[in-house]
Amino acid sequence: MTRTTDGSAGAADSARSDQGHRQHRRPEPAFARAIAKALGDARSVLDVGAGVVSYAPADRDVTVVAPAGSLPFDDDAFDAAMTTFSLHRWGDLERGLAELRRVTRGPIVILTCDPARIEDSWLAEYAPEVMATEARRHPALDRIAGALAGDTVTNTPLPIPFTCVDGFSEAYYGRPERLLDPGARNADPAWNSVDELTARRSVSALRAALDSGEWDRRHGALRIQPAHDGSLVLVTAVPAA
């Protein structure tokens, strides 16, 4: 069962109404399984910042809230907490994570991207401004760990399946033609973070590389690679014994 507090109703309504985003951004089963495993046997789960893609397990008692400095819950109110692709939208990351720990007695599970690895993607060759902006959006893993200094924090790289249905840019590591689709690009905030001229220039560079065969000469092996280790990371914070 999932319940949404008043504070996140607008965001949830917006996500439900955005059919284009839902076409390209759907929960990837491999990520959902990893998150469910990290949550352990928790029955009550707080999901902070759920938006276009929800990874909240359907078999748990889930409460969804928008990112906020203070959370309207008692101490240790939840067995576990989670947040996916949302830390860049938190106004005060340290306070937000401190609040998350206050209301959670078990693991905190965070699906995020390691900004130090984002620009390692081949896409940075054709859309450098897009990927540089994306790298700046995500907080460093050390900063996350520092905000949860009282916990045992583990960073687990999460391989991206070739058939990934959650369409952030790295999901198309072996399917570059997908990024020529405006709908696919618009579903990824990274592309919306640059001006239209920059985005058009990036798309033109990628299209030219595909038409000329340059992309396949440089990166064609990715087309038959079943999974890819990109920037995706599952951060799990467990209270120290």
Automatic annotation (TrEMBL):
Record keywords: Methyltransferase, Transferase
Biological process annotations from GO: methylation
Segments forming domain Methyltransferase type: 63-105
SUPFAM superfamilies: S-adenosyl-L-methionine-dependent methyltransferases
UniProt-listed Gene3D superfamilies: Vaccinia Virus protein VP39 (3.40.50.150)
Segments for region (Disordered): 1-28
Signal peptide positions (record): none
UniProt GO molecular function: methyltransferase activity
Pfam families from the UniProt entry: Methyltransf_11 (PF08241)
Biased composition (Low complexity): 1-14
Entry-linked InterPro entries: Methyltransf_11 (IPR013216), SAM-dependent_MTases_sf (IPR029063)
Domain of life: Bacteria
Name this polypeptide is given: Methyltransferase domain-containing protein
Source organism of this protein record: Curtobacterium citreum
